[in-house]
């Protein structure tokens, strides 16, 4: 299992650009009421840094990089969504880009272990959130926001479900993706409350801090994804080998049983023949 110290040594230097670009964003702090191309670039730079971070951990079309490819694609779509959301008239388009990003994140996290109980709880909270926001929604947003909320909650569910502390099915990077999913829900929840329910003080700061933390946690999940893939593959090969061994043992036992039955039949045939031979002289007399 990867320890926090190992994670820090591996990822620390590669995350310097991310923290620098986040610092630049908050130092410049361009208000959302002043959309511009420059504001979009500054907002997207931290996510671009995370894209580079993921690429630095290796990328190819091989199966062991499938997880990293999905996270990378999700980050790229998130970057597009960030740029679109700078302009209010593209809010729906930005939300759509983030929706596809959540589909990719969910695909990366997978559905094993399933944890249905957790899903039920989160979707119930999702329904409550939608009920709260619906009075403030109209037109396309009345469809888009509930759909996006469903996709977001699915990502959160799969991110949390990956971590099973009491069954040793967790690593520090899985904990990071779990925290990332939760922070994503917090960030988008703040957006929903601020836009569709009631203005939130310092909303831009709170939203962006939690958002960047969310994307950082999700990006960190690629650190040992290749090793995790190889471990799962080795475990599957071991299970397959054990299954084949059990099948071979079953076939051997079946063969031995058939041989014993054949031997018993042969012995019975020989005894019956011997009895007939013994009776033949007596009948002749």
Give the % helix. over 70%
Gross geometry: elongated
Task: Report the strand count.
Answer: 0
Query: Are there runs of 5+ residues with pLDDT below 50, and where?
Result: none
- Pairing-aware structural class of the strands and helices? mainly alpha
Q: Average the pLDDT over all residues and give the rounded result.
A: 90
How would you explain this protein's 3D organization?
The protein has 285 residues and is mainly α. Helix content is 78%, strand content 0%. It contains ten helices and no strands. The protein has helices at residues 4-11, 16-28, 37-56, 66-85, 91-109, 116-133, 141-161, 172-196, 203-220, 225-284. The longest helix has 60 residues, at 225-284. The protein is elongated. The protein starts with a helix and ends with a helix. The model has no long low-confidence stretch (mean pLDDT 90).
Note the main attributes of this structure:
single chain; about 280 residues; mainly alpha; 10 helices
Concise structural overview:
By secondary structure, the chain is mainly alpha-helical. It has helices spanning 4-11, 16-28, 37-56, 66-85, 91-109, 116-133, 141-161, 172-196, 203-220, 225-284.
Structural topology:
Layout: H1 4-11, H2 16-28, H3 37-56, H4 66-85, H5 91-109, H6 116-133, H7 141-161, H8 172-196, H9 203-220, H10 225-284
Helix pairs in contact: 2-3, 3-4, 3-9, 4-5, 5-7, 6-7, 7-8, 8-9
């Amino acid at each position: 299992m990867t320890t926090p110290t190992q994670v820090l040594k591996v990822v620390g230097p590669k995350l310097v650009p991310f923290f620098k670009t986040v610092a630049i964003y908050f130092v410049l702090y361009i208000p959302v009421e002043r959309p511009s191309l420059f504001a979009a670039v500054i907002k997207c730079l931290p996510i671009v840094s995370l894209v580079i971070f993921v690429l630095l951990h290796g990328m190819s079309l091989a199966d062991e990089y499938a997880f990293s490819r999905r996270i990378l694609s999700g980050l790229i779509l998130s970057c597009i969504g960030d740029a679109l959301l700078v302009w209010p008239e593209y809010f729906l388009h930005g939300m759509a880009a983030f929706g596809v990003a959540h589909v990719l994140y969910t695909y990366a996290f997978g559905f094993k272990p399933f944890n249905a109980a957790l899903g039920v709880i989160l979707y119930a909270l999702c329904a409550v959130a939608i009920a709260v926001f619906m009075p403030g929604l109209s037109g396309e947003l009345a469809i888009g926001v509930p759909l996006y909320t469903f996709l977001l909650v699915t990502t959160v569910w799969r991110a949390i479900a990956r971590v099973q502390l009491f069954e040793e099915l967790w690593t520090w990077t899985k904990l990071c993706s779990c925290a990332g999913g939760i922070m994503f829900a917090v960030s988008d929840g703040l957006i929903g409350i601020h836009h569709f329910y009631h203005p939130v003080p310092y909303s831009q700061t709170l939203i962006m801090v939690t958002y960047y933390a969310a994307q950082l946690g999700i990006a960190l999940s690629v650190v040992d994804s290749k090793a995790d893939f190889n471990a799962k593959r080795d475990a599957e090969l071991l299970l397959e080998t054990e299954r084949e061994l059990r099948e071979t043992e079953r076939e051997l036992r079946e063969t031995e049983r058939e041989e014993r039955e054949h031997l018993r039949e042969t012995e019975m045939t020989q005894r019956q023949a011997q009895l007939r031979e013994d009776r033949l002289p007596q009948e002749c007399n």
